[in-house]
Design goal:
With 350 residues, the protein is of the alpha/beta class. The chain is 40% helix and 17% strand. It has helices at 33-41, 48-64, 71-86, 93-112, 117-143, 170-179, 196-207, 220-225, 251-261, 292-295, 336-344; strands at residues 6-9, 12-16, 27-30, 152-155, 185-189, 212-215, 231-234, 238-240, 245-248, 265-268, 274-275, 296-297, 300-301, 314-317, 324-327, 330-332. The strands form 4 sheets. The protein has a 7-stranded mixed sheet with strand order 6-5-4-7-10-15-16, sandwiched between helices. The two termini are 32 Å apart. 47% of the residues are buried. Bound molecules: 5-S-methyl-1-O-phosphono-5-thio-D-ribulose (MRU). 5-S-methyl-1-O-phosphono-5-thio-D-ribulose binds next to helix 2 and strand 9.
Length: 350
């Protein structure tokens, strides 16, 4: 069963509307780059790798629709579009990685075929999308060695096909193990405030008949104590050079609980999520989102009018809570400073 998260079709960007899931399976067709920006901001498309792909395609879409009269105008238009994408979701490292990659391609195309710049960007964006699927499959092949028959795996948020161009990171590992015939069961954290676990991960797992049970976030500790969970796998939005991991709010609490109960915590993420320019998690910028995500559930008010709200979308898990980081190039273990550097150096693109 293939879930098509995002694709390029007839000079438009098409994406599954993740706000409509699981009730409705419908696709949004973006004809203007501003629509892609809006879709990233309102979480129609979300998950760090998928955001990166959307930005790459959005930049290409924007450049297809500018008709400059000079090279200067072309450059100004390009950088203005990139700048707008960079202001959408600050924590998602893949967003900035994808923008850098498009900038590099833009400079190359401008130097060789200035008349073909937009076409070159379209081709690059499609490559970013296709490569992401291939990367996730490789991650799954590495990660499956960590999964055994009988495992009860907890996952948080959605790090599946929907959070990427396809297959997924944390769910990609689970999916690969399942496809190889491993008898596993997944506990899905609902993931408040906006329920990516309940709405998206549960939907993905059910679509493929992977045995799964939904729990609310505050149940995880009790299940660990009961011995019902023996592994945790999550994705990442940004990984610092020392292996500190920013991921969906609630990941840190799981990590602390996991240590208390002696349960391994694995993070699955592409190398493009690793930010070698920052030393540790304290430097990661954490997105804060609208209060309405906390005071309402799917449009229904659950809190009194006027209550002050704090809504950080992500938290940072210090590296010493993380058993291993699964990437497309292999599995990194502590000391992460060295192991991540070794793997990261294998990236050819920025
Ligand atoms: O706010 P979201 O839904 O974009 O947050 C997504 C996550 O936190 C995922 O775990 C992360 O991006 C990894 S997805 C492969």
């Amino acid at each position: 069963m293939t879930i098509r998260t995002i694709f390029w079709e007839d000079n438009t960007v098409v994406m599954i509307d993740q706000n409509a899931l699981p009730q409705g399976e419908r696709y949004l067709r973006c004809r203007r780059y501003e629509e892609v920006i809006a879709a990233i901001k309102d979480l129609t498309i979300r998950g760090a790798p998928a955001i990166g792909v959307a930005a790459a395609m959005g930049i290409a879409l924007g450049m297809l629709n500018v008709f400059p009269s000079s090279e200067e105008e072309l450059k100004t238009a390009f950088h203005k579009i990139c700048e707008q994408f960079s202001r959408t979701r600050p924590t998602a490292r893949n967003l900035f990685w994808a923008i850098e990659r498009m900038k590099k391609r833009f400079a190359e195309a401008l130097a060789t075929r200035p008349d073909m710049v937009a076409q070159a960007l379209v081709e690059e964006a499609i490559r970013v999308c296709e490569e992401d699927i291939a990367i996730n499959k490789r991650m799954g092949m590495h990660g499956k060695s960590l999964i055994q028959d009988g495992d009860n795996i907890l996952t948080h948020c959605n790090a599946g096909a929907l959070a990427t161009a396809g297959c997924g990171t944390a769910l990609g590992v689970i999916r690969t193990a399942w496809e190889e015939g491993k008898k596993i069961h997944v506990y899905v954290d609902e993931t408040r405030p906006i329920l990516q676990g309940a709405r998206l991960t549960a939907w993905e797992l059910m679509k493929e008949n992977i045995p799964a049970t939904l729990i609310t976030d505050n149940m995880a500790g009790f299940l660990m104590k009961q011995g019902k969970i023996n592994k945790i796998i999550v994705g990442a939005d940004r990984i610092a050079a020392n292996g500190d991991v920013a991921n969906k709010i609630g990941t840190y609490s799981l990590a602390v609980l996991a240590k208390e109960h002696g349960i391994p915590l694995y993070v699955a993420a592409p190398l493009s999520t690793i930010d070698m320019s920052i030393k540790g998690g304290d430097e990661i910028s954490i997105e804060e989102r609208d209060a309405g995500e906390v005071t309402t559930i799917r449009g229904v008010k659950v809190a009194p009018e006027g209550i002050p709200v704090y809504n950080p979308a992500f938290d940072v898990t210090p590296n010493h809570y993380i058993t291993a980081i699964i990437t497309e190039a292999g599995i990194a273990v502590s000391p992460y400073q060295e192991s991540l550097r070794r793997l990261h150096d294998q990236i050819t693109a920025p």
